[in-house]
């Protein structure tokens, strides 16, 4: 069976609007969530990732009413993260229309949550997001709370442990490349992809279709998440698929 690579636009939500910046400093307003959902419906993307980037830091639960509203108009798989701390949060998001949940800080602070989600909803419902920075010696460290707190955890080991607990996918991001449009961290992506048996989503730094191809063919990613390339350039998910197809990557056209 040939698994087709997914193109996954990422929406970062903060203070009632969508934002984007560099290295997780998301300050630039880029539009409304509902407008973005409707645009991506027309563009027939494979999956949409929605992350509330301030919920965990502010100690808030997910905004269930907002997700309910967006999910009504979202005609593609919808992965939602931000503020998830308990199984009740997960159940609430799935109930109002999310297809998957994305857990990050909770996977570090309370790893058993991954087991709980798998046992109740199945591994396909949980994506573990890992945000990492590269140390001067070349090693990597996972960071929590939207990339603001060092954890000393090794992202590759964290990915492996998360999959053992039941994570269905790993979303891996190099914090320092986020928003730079200089390309994914292929080394980090490759290390994680080689360590786990589930799909790995490359994130952070995409600025061209070639970057997407590199993440898939050179680093082993099963999907590519991107934001700035779609917010600030004329490049589109459909053209990305055509480029990947023309370069030997199986995609959903």
Query: How far apart lie the N and C ends?
Result: 17 Å
Number of strand segments = 12
Q: Major β-sheet, in short? A: 8 strands, parallel, barrel
| Structural class category | alpha/beta
Based on the model shown, name its key terms.
253 residues, alpha/beta, eight-stranded parallel β-barrel, 10 helices, 35% helix
What can be said about this structure in brief?
With 253 residues, the protein is of the alpha/beta class. The protein has helices at residues 33-42, 64-72, 87-95, 105-109, 112-121, 155-165, 186-195, 209-218, 228-232, 237-246, and strands at residues 6-14, 17-22, 25-31, 48-52, 78-81, 100-103, 126-134, 140-144, 149-150, 169-174, 200-203, 223-226. The chain has an 8-stranded parallel beta barrel with strand order 1-4-5-6-7-10-11-12, surrounded by 7 helices.
Report on the structure:
- The protein has 253 residues and is of the alpha/beta class.
- 35% of the residues lie in helices and 26% in strands.
- It is built from ten helices and twelve strands.
- Strands 1-4-5-6-7-10-11-12 form an eight-stranded parallel β-barrel, surrounded by seven helices.
- Helix 6 runs parallel beside helix 7 and helix 8 crosses helix 10.
- The longest helix has 11 residues.
- It starts with 5 loop residues before the first strand and ends in a 7-residue tail after the last helix.
